[in-house]
UniProtKB/TrEMBL annotation:
Originating species: Chryseobacterium wanjuense
Listed GO MF terms: glycosyltransferase activity; hydrolase activity
Gene3D superfamilies per UniProt: Glycosyl hydrolase domain, family 43
Classification via InterPro entries: Glyco_hydro_beta-prop_sf, Mannoside_phosphorylase
Family in the record: Belongs to the glycosyl hydrolase 130 family.
Protein name: Predicted glycosyl hydrolase, GH43/DUF377 family
Length: 342
């Protein structure tokens, strides 16, 4: 077992209107000796924006903005900007988030050169109407029926507006691989992977072909008991000598509801569509009071990391209300992951 140290809460909600209901699920990046955190800030009515704070070291807040730095501006994000992640590819920062309009939740991209001004690219995951997806999923040769079961909640909306398949947890790899941009996304219950040469290639025709070969793009499916209900992307993948270290979230159902924990897997460096191995147990799970009770109980939702020497710091949403940090030895985690690799 990998030894995990729960470092505790690093950010709590405040009385400021934009974050009075909760702060959670942060994007984290180290740049020029400073650690930047872009977190989901929740106002009354479950309207989310992105707050910001700067750390002087992995556990010390140096300053914190008293206003949100990214706010809803467009119709597709009118109900919130949720669960950001961030990477730097070449000289550009890619910040991804889930835009929510009150019905549809879809992966969206914003870019920056300086971490201050952001250009919104818009939704980049497929906008496939639920009814169209349902027809595809009824053909077992294209999309397994389980996808319909996990996404049929969209049928409950009584509206004339477009209803799209939810596609969340959009996360880019932190560099090009074989000249391509790779990213993770999640149509429940699995994690899918896609690649393009340029963002502009993510056209309706691209996604049409993608769905015609949907099974080929499933990266990880629920496997172990702690992730048996469904899984989703967590932190941006970390490049190591053994492969891409992937910290993701796994969910299992209990009599007290769903339990969200942090999980770990390795992907091949030059072919990240291939899983090398994964932990057969949760990396960590809700145990502390700040993880067990909150806006949503029993949640550890990892979304960002920082590596300092041999220590991996994992930043996560705790009970959907606060942000906490866990730390561990990255070399020991890699050794544990590689133990079962033949």
């Amino acid at each position: 077992m990998v030894l995990i140290k729960k470092e505790g809460i690093i950010l709590k909600k405040t009385e400021l209107s934009f974050e009075c209901e909760g702060v959670l699920n942060p994007a984290v990046i180290s740049e020029n000796g400073k650690i930047h955190i872009f977190y989901r800030a929740v106002a009354k009515g479950n309207f989310s924006s992105v707050g910001y704070c700067l750390l002087s070291d992995p556990l010390t807040v140096e300053k914190r903005s008293d206003i949100p730095i990214i706010i809803p501006e467009f119709e597709h994000e009118k109900h919130g900007i949720e669960d950001p992640r961030i990477v730097k590819i070449d000289d550009t920062f890619y910040l991804t988030y889930t835009s929510y309009d009150g019905i549809n939740a879809l992966g969206t991209l914003a870019t920056s050169q300086d971490l201050k001004s952001w250009k919104k690219t818009g939704i980049v995951v497929p906008k496939i109407p639920y009814d169209e997806f349902k027809l595809l999923s009824e053909s077992e040769s294209l999309i397994p029926e389980k996808y319909q079961r996990y996404n049929q909640f969209q049928l409950n909306h009584n509206t004339d507006e477009d209803i799209f398949l939810w596609d969340k947890n959009l996360i880019f790899f932190p560099r090009r691989i074989n000249g391509k941009l790779y990213f993770l996304h999640r149509i429940r219950p699995d994690i899918q992977i896609a690649s393009v040469e340029n963002i502009e290639d993510l056209t309706p025709d691209f996604w049409k072909d993608y769905f015609l070969h949907f099974k080929d793009h499933v990266l990880l499916s629920p496997k172990h008991d702690h992730e048996i209900s469904y899984i989703g992307g967590g932190c941006p993948p970390i490049e190591t000598e053994y492969g891409w270290l992937m910290i993701y979230h796994g969910v299992h159902d209990t009599i007290d509801g769903y339990v969200y924990g942090a999980c770990a897997a390795l992907l091949e460096l030059n072919n990240p569509e291939k899983e090398i191995t994964r932990l057969s147990y949760p990396l960590f799970k809700p145990e502390e009071k700040w993880e067990l009770k909150g806006e949503v109980n029993n949640v550890c939702f990892p979304t960002g990391t920082v590596v300092k020497n041999d220590t991996l710091y994992i930043y996560y949403g705790a009970a959907d209300e606060r942000i906490a940090v866990a730390s561990l030895s990255i070399s020991k985690l890699l050794k544990e992951l590689m133990r079962d690799v033949v």
